[in-house]
Design a protein that fits this description.
Length: 220
């Protein structure tokens, strides 16, 4: 996040509302069609956190946008899952069909802190993002509950990125396969360890290399 913001000449410590694209899911082209097509997955607050305290005054507006586009899937990924109950719309019920609530779990400590809360919240769709993965994270006790719909794993990018070991990816994939949980390896990270060798991956190649990794995993 800090690296991306620095490239845009932004201070990561300042939380602001993106006036230009805040309501992008509602914007239409000249032909009257939405600029974001149906069935698209929209990741909210990619360089911030949907439940961050400084954004409390704008969150109700975000929920309204989400409700107006039930044909679009909104991924809400947070490190602040403990703030979930304080920031729900009045009609949330058991959750909106088009919202995926996810927690990040970059290591075992954060997994054990955040995932138990995730499992107990009212949400129809729940996911775990082991990203950026810093070690093998044992998810078996959570996967076997049947409450996790998807796990996505990715390495760390840009300057001073920590190692992403393919053996960790493989173990988590096999854990997900055992409990029939959807798995995605979305990026290798900049420093990718495989078969004892560290590969320096350019950022624009990380996703394609991860796809190749997925092809290998599916054969296991």
């Amino acid at each position: 996040m800090d690296f991306l913001d620095s490239k845009r000449d932004k201070d990561s410590n300042i939380v602001t509302k993106n006036i230009t694209n805040f309501n992008l899911p509602l914007k239409k082209s000249r032909n009257g069609e939405y600029k974001i097509p149906a069935e698209t997955e929209v990741a909210t607050c990619f360089t911030s956190d949907f439940f961050i305290e400084e954004a409390d005054e704008w969150r109700s507006d975000a929920w309204e946008i989400i409700k107006k586009r039930p044909d679009v899937n909104f991924l809400i990924c947070t490190k602040r899952i403990e703030r979930f109950y304080k920031n729900l719309p009045s009609d949330w019920g058991l959750g909106y069909d088009n919202v995926i609530i996810a927690v990040t779990a970059e290591n075992q400590a954060m997994a054990d802190k955040r995932i138990p809360i995730l499992l107990e919240i009212p949400s129809k769709r729940k996911a775990i993002l082991v990203s950026p993965i810093l070690e093998y994270v044992d998810l078996k006790r959570y996967l076997k509950t049947g409450k996790v719909n998807e796990v996505s794993v990715g390495g760390e990018s840009y300057d001073n990125a920590r190692i992403c070991d393919f053996e960790w990816i493989k173990k988590i994939y096999l854990d997900c396969k055992k409990y029939n949980v959807k798995f995605d390896f979305h990026q290798t990270g900049s420093n990718f360890l495989m078969n004892g060798k560290v590969y320096k991956i350019k950022h624009h190649d990380e996703h394609n290399q991860a796809k190749k990794g997925m092809e290998y995993l599916k054969k296991l």
